[in-house]
Amino acid sequence: MERSESEEIKRIDTITQEISPTFCFAKWYHANIYFQTGETHSCYHPAPHKIDTAPLLENPSAIHNTAQKKKERAAMMRGEQPAGCNYCWKIEAMGKDYVSDRKQRNQTIFFKHRLKAVKEGGAEFDVNPEYLEVSFGNECNFRCGYCHPKASSRYYQEIKQHGPYDMVKNHRCDIDWFQIFEEENNPYLDAFWRWWPELSKELHILRITGGEPTIQQSTYRLFDMLDADPKPELELNCNSNLGGKPKQLEKFTNRVNDLLTNSKIRRFKMFTSIDTWGKRAEYIRDGLDIEVFERNLDYFMRNCEAPMVLMITFNIFSVTTFRTLLEKILEWRAKYNDVETHRWQRLGFDTPHLKEPLQYDINILPKEYLSYMRDHLQFIKENVDDNRKDAFSTLEYEKFRRVVDYMETTEYPLEKVIQGRQDFHKFFTEQNRRRGVNHIEVFPEMAEFFDLCETYVWNTII
Fold first, then answer.
1. What is the mean pLDDT of the chain?
2. In what helix (H) or strand (E) does residue 267 lie, and over which residues does it extend?
3. Counting beta carbons within 10 angstroms of the beta carbon of residue 338, is it exposed (0 to 12), middle (13 to 18) or buried (19 or more)?
4. 58: helix, coil or strand?
5. N or C: which end of the chain has fewer CB within 10 A?
């Protein structure tokens, strides 16, 4: 009998404990590289660190196999918990039945030969990752509030015009401490193209993120390379905000279809971000036009057989109206899942909770807001059916349950709550001024919370 995904995660967790109880394959076989700043990490939870350019001329794989990663690999093999991975340690501290991203990634990466390679090579050997996520540049048509100028050219231009958000302690968005490398004359990107012939031999999944990849020249350079030198075992993924001009999305979709039709890649998967629905989503992700988003989503789903995954960055503005997006997901699943053609779910979603910046953190809300969260969780539960593609899955329910439990059980120190609420009032007051919006008009049910936060600006004593 075939195991469920949850059962498989538990089985692999038992096997990987042969190395250590804190071992994570991602530290070896996953990489995220941001070419515009020359930074890397092995998943999006730890903060990225700077790549040393010195080793790159002789060893282009050093854009992944950095000294810092090797130090963290060694710590994991000793059973230690590297501080940068606290996102997963906090989830696992809630109980053994909670599925952290570490455990889920171990299950997706696991192969016996990889387990053997780590046992024999330890922390020091240079690894060609099986999963690589790259950001070619920060060119982007959005300026999502919880994003950063490093990843968005529009946000970068806003900070150049108005200055940083220096009225807050969290997410000031200063730009004077880093350099943005353009796609041309970039030593990190040069190392990638030199590494590509060797890297692509073992690469299983390549994911392009942004900025906005559909408008970046390196994305189409990669398509040209795959056209000339196919990688029929490679799965290509792409993050897109689906907010670009329809003609651009059509061009991108046609190029993907050509690669798939001619077996030049094995598979393609599209990822997009949306955190609630309607005007509320547009407030969170400045630049989003919800009608354009849905039009582009519809074009892609109708003209490409590839699946799409919604990356829901669950944040303070998702709490009150998340159900509107859940209802939309059910509508899309009923619309785009063709039982005769597709054996897999075409429209997936994930619900990682946002930790930073603090003013977006759900845990600065009063606990009374948990009633919204429980209602959303109940709605998912009422629509769970693992045998239907137009329903939710048990794993999706469990993933959101951990977000609800995280909010319910987390008690920040008083000083952190006060700081978060002060920054909430100051940050969004200033953002509203700069962008000509008003979040109380968009989220009227949060007016009382905004007033509460204002009291902390003038009086830090409860």
1. 94
2. strand 265-273
3. exposed
4. coil
5. N
Contact 167, 430 (CB under 8 A): yes
Q: How many CA atoms lie within 13 A of 308 on its CB side?
A: 26
Q: At what angle do helices 246-261 and 290-303 cross, to 10 degrees?
A: 20
Residue 240 amino acid letter: S
How far is CA 104 from its chain centroid? Answer: 15
Residue-level pLDDT at 184: 87
Residue 256: pLDDT over 90:
yes
Question: 238 by DSSP, 3-state: which?
Answer: strand
* SS3 category, 383: coil
Question: Which pair of tokens denotes residue 279?
Answer: 């005007």
List CB contacts of 62: < 8 A, sequence separation 6 or more: 51, 52, 55, 56, 126, 191
Write the CA distances from 418 to 63, 119, 404, 425, 439, integer angstroms: 40, 46, 22, 11, 20
The answer to whether 173 touches 155, Cβ cutoff 8 Å, is: yes
In this prediction the pTM is: 0.86
Strand 131-135, strand 265-273: pairing: unpaired
